[in-house]
Design the sequence.
């Protein structure tokens, strides 16, 4: 039950949503609602107004071209994981989407909502950073390297709405996640890609925000094998520590999951 | 307040509800369809699963106004002409319940998974039940029931 009243508006277009949020800076965009509505139930969020973009057809699409897969921000996880185009172009991305939450959550939850929320243990930020995606908003294009700025923080400004994400198609990619056994959020998830311009390793769940591991990227650029990074240890200093696992445990998991992600990339 | 209209179990319904009304509240309190259960307040348990436009969703994690214009199916809408749906019949036959509280959500999830994945194996059934929590059965007989129902529905098709 939501214990306080708020105003709800179903936007008829992205333009209308942008106008509405410009006039109501405290409003929240409602995409899939699979994080926002539970947060409102717990009173962790109490926006006075919701602008619903979940039904906008212009934001729900998958386009796979020669160099990139472009996904509309209101595209559901279930549609990403079952997309024949994505399974062919970037199978690791389809695999990742199928590991988010549970089937009912995947029927409503959206890629744009997940990225804009930037939960430290969410899966999609690892894919966006690992693949070097470009995030398009109502105002500009933002590189994934600049988008994720901190715990639940992004480069999105007030009134700026994420509209689509462009993922460059890599030569190889793999995602390996150690899920929290209760919540299925990532204790640690590692997304590894190899492209013509180099190797990227992105880690979610371990720290306050998704991050890259340059030492692993350098080692994998010489030899794209699990063995190449077996000796790379991540310092535990800034990692998350909670009842599910210590920072040292997560640091250990980063190397383990990175090796598995490389093995998955080489297998696929 | 908003006037919300949708189709529930094949019948058009319409009512004035507050914007903050969750779909599950609309079903239970406004329409008095109390077969859909609320087992938690954290969107985790799956007792409230219904189908919205043919997809299984947690009716506690969507507002009634968002389902305006949609086709909603609840556990009350599965049986036809006094005959239990094959998944309902399989849950009875295989003792896929003990206290029964999670059962409506389990069955709505099972119907959805059989529709999406006709060739269900045990591992897939277990994985697909990720969002439905049962505190009685240990899931064994639930998986048995879904496996049997999938075979029957697949065989009939």
Sequence:
């Amino acid at each position: 039950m939501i214990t306080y009243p708020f105003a709800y508006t179903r936007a008829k277009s992205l333009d209308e949503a942008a106008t509405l949020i410009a006039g109501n800076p405290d409003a929240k965009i409602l995409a899939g609602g699979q994080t926002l509505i539970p947060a409102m139930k717990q009173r962790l969020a109490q926006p006075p107004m919701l602008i619903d973009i979940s039904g906008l057809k212009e934001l729900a699409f998958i386009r796979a071209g020669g160099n990139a897969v472009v996904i509309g921000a209101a595209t559901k996880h279930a549609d990403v994981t079952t997309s024949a185009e994505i399974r062919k172009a970037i199978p690791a991305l389809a695999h990742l989407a199928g590991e988010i939450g549970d089937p009912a959550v995947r029927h409503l939850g959206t890629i744009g909502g997940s990225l804009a929320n930037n939960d430290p243990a969410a899966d999609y930020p690892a894919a966006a950073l690992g693949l070097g995606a470009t995030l398009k908003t109502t105002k500009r294009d933002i590189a994934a390297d600049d988008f994720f700025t901190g715990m639940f923080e992004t480069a999105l400004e007030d009134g700026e709405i994420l509209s689509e994400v462009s993922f460059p198609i890599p030569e190889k990619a793999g995602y390996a996640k150690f899920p929290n056994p209760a919540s299925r959020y990532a204790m640690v998830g590692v997304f590894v890609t190899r492209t013509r311009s180099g190797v990227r390793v992105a880690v979610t769940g371990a720290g306050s925000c998704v991050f890259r591991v340059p030492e692993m990227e350098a080692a994998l650029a010489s030899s794209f094998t699990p063995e190449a990074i077996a000796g790379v240890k991540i310092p535990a200093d800034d990692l998350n520590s909670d009842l599910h696992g210590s920072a040292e445990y997560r640091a250990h998991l980063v190397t383990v999951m990175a090796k598995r992600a490389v093995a998955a990339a080489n297998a696929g | 307040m908003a006037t919300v209209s949708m189709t529930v179990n094949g019948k058009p319904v319409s009512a004035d509800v507050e914007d903050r009304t969750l779909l599950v509240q609309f079903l239970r309190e406004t329409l008095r369809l109390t077969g859909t259960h609320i087992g938690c307040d954290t969107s985790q348990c799956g007792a409230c699963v219904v189908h919205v436009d043919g997809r299984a969703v947690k009716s506690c994690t969507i507002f009634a106004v968002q389902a305006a214009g949609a086709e909603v199916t609840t556990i009350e809408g599965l049986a036809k002409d006094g005959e239990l749906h094959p998944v309902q019949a399989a849950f009875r036959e295989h003792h896929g319940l003990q206290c029964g509280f999670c059962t409506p959500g389990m069955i709505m999830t099972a119907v959805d998974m059989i529709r999406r994945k006709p060739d269900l194996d045990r591992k897939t059934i277990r994985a697909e039940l990720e969002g439905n929590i049962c505190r009685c059965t240990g899931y064994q007989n639930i998986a048995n029931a879904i496996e049997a129902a999938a075979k029957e529905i697949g065989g009939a098709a």
Q: What stands out?
A: The first strand of chain B starts at residue 2 and ends at 8.
